[in-house]
Amino acid sequence: MEKALKKLVAFACIHLNLAEEDALYVYQMLLGHYKGLPPYEGDIDEGSLRALDRPDEIRKELAEHLLKMGYVGKRLDEEISFLFGAVTPLPSKVNERFHVLRQTDPFKATEYLYNLAVYSDYVKKSAIEANVHFDYMASWGKQIEVSINLSKPEKKNSDIAKLLGAPKVSEYPPCALCYQNLGYYGDDKHADRSNLRFVEIDIEGEKWYLQFSPYGYFKRHCILFARDHTPMEISPRVFKALLGFVDLFPHYFIGSNADLPIVGGSILNHEHFQGGEHLLPLTKANMRKRLVEKGSLTVDVVDFPVSTLLVRSPNKAELLLAAEKILSCWRVYDDEENGIFSQTEGKKHNTTSLICRKEEGVYFLYMMLRNNRCDETYPDGIFHAHPDKFHIKSEGIGLIEAGGLFILPARLKRQMAQVAECVEQKYTLEEAKKHFDDIEPFWVSVEKIRETGESIEDYLGDVCQNILKDVAVFKEDGVGQAGIARFVEACEL
Question: How many Cβ atoms are within 10 Å of 180's Cβ, its own excluded?
Fold first, then answer.
């Protein structure tokens, strides 16, 4: 163990900016943590450490020794995070270096923070690479992205909705996004965060914190979260924050989930945004129709199943005013012909999911029009994945998936392998049940693939593009497109 710890410290000096003058101090503190382990007097092969692009080898060696010392399960993970956290620079040093880099090159600043997150074992690079990911050419001529995330737990919409209305509790930390997670060892209810580092950013006079997602959905998947544990909101203040972020980091997009259950993300009780160095399929789509052209401001309907307006201008104030008018109008907008009601029985239904980016001085704000109304036919959401697709995806469709990148549950890797075997072996349903306990909900998949001859990937891609069509509040037919034009006219831009 003493050799493994010395190797960890040497790794940190090379990859985590641990100062050489702090190396001996940190090493001896770690030896003392294990009740007086003797120091390792041999040499460490720094050349092999320098060649590493992730900490897996270091983690594996530490885990082997910790297992012998009685650390198992969650306690093992917590202890490894503690060790990596101990050799990662203090939050103040990370903030200092990040902002020095940002003054001259924002890209280098975010790369520094990302690489720190990888080498400190916070961003699980190997786990991310193990996810299934493929592109699917959709019927409208553009690719959508589909992934099976092997580490993300499946969440029920009903549980997410309960969190939004739940009172604040004294539990510590209040949630997985809270500032208080910084350096937290972990317990029965909370994940370990000893190796977490984030940086403080001032946007429009408010303090925000930037970190990278441990299980990123796309390249450089980052999270920007508010210090206070307050619920998500969609408002002019949020528009300003999104535009302020892309002013600081124009090489990233940033987006906000909607502020209502079903159409929002999985964490609605703590205000946060998601972004990164990636172009979602929505942002690569063509424009279907221009509805407003007023000076440097344009408003287009995006050629994409999810009903989306692209508000575009080089003038920030002009764009903010237009976005505020669209949101204000949409909050109370009804269109009976398209099944859109802004509220029923005192419950509000209309909101938006947002994606913002900046290119060559021009701001792009994608406003996805969302509605979370339910009825007897669709008790889980009228503008949500319909029940015939629940075997593939039943969770809420947040901004990433509404933008065309699907995050499907880990169970599908196993279940789709079973579907493939049923097709290949030409099983009947009764025969299939003898082999697989949970095949019946997927028999529709078996029959569809047999009928069309398509691959498993094509089948999943087709289901996902049809979920996007379910989500659309204004469908792609004549009635829907006339409806979205009427709505924009009502905004009086």
Answer: 15
Residue labelled with tokens 């009928």: 451
Residue 35 DSSP SS3? coil
In Å, how far are 29, 267, 330, 369, 481 from 476, measured between CA atoms?
63, 30, 19, 14, 6
- Distance separating alpha carbons of residues 207 and 200, to the nearest angstrom: 7
Token pair belonging to 228: 């206070």
Q: What is the pTM of this model?
A: 0.94
Report residue 25: phi and psi, to 5°: -60, -50
**Dihedral through CA 34, CA 198, CA 410, CA 83, nearest 10?**
-10
Look at residue 252 and give its three-state secondary structure.
coil
Question: pLDDT tens across 268-297, in order?
Answer: 999 999 999 999 999 999 999 999 999 999
Omega before 173 cis (within 30°)? yes
pLDDT (0 to 100) of residue 169 = 47
**Lowest model confidence (mean pLDDT) among 28-32, 174-178, 431-435, 460-464:** 174-178
Opening angle at CA 366, ends 361 and 368, nearest 5: 175
Three-state DSSP at 133 gives: strand
Distance in angstroms (rounded) separating the CA atoms of residues 486 and 474? 11
* Average pLDDT estimate for 344-360: 96
Residue 194 CB partners (closer than 8 Å, separation 6+): 78, 81, 82, 84, 85, 86, 183, 184, 185, 186
Q: Which residue has the higher pLDDT, 139 or 338?
A: 338
Q: What tokens appear for 139 in the block? A: 């019927």
Residue 359 pairs with which residues in a beta bridge?
362
Starting at the earlier edge strand, list the strands of the sheet with 132-137.
132-137, 143-148, 405-408
Tokens 């025969």 correspond to: 431
Element (H, E) at 363: strand 362-371
As a whole number of angstroms, the distance between CA 380 and CA 327 comes to 24
Dihedral of CA atoms 177, 178, 183, 185 in degrees, nearest 10, equals: -70
Q: How are the residues of the chain apportioned to helix, strand and coil, as percentages rounded to the nearest 5?
A: 45, 20, 40
pLDDT given for residue 265 in this prediction? 79
Integer angstrom CA distances of residue 64 from 69, 72, 286: 9, 10, 53
Categorize the per-residue pLDDT at 154 as very low, low, confident or very high, splitting at 50, 70 and 90.
low
Where do the domains of the chain lie, and which CATH numbers do they carry? 2-125 (no CATH), 128-405+475-490 (3.30.428)
218, 222, 227, 202: which is closest to 210 by C-alpha?
A: 222
Give the rounded distance of the alpha carbon of 204 from its chain centre: 24
Burial 365-375, CB ≥16 within 10 A → b, else e = bbbbbbbbbbe
368-396 pLDDT, tens digit per residue, is: 999 999 999 999 999 999 999 999 999 99
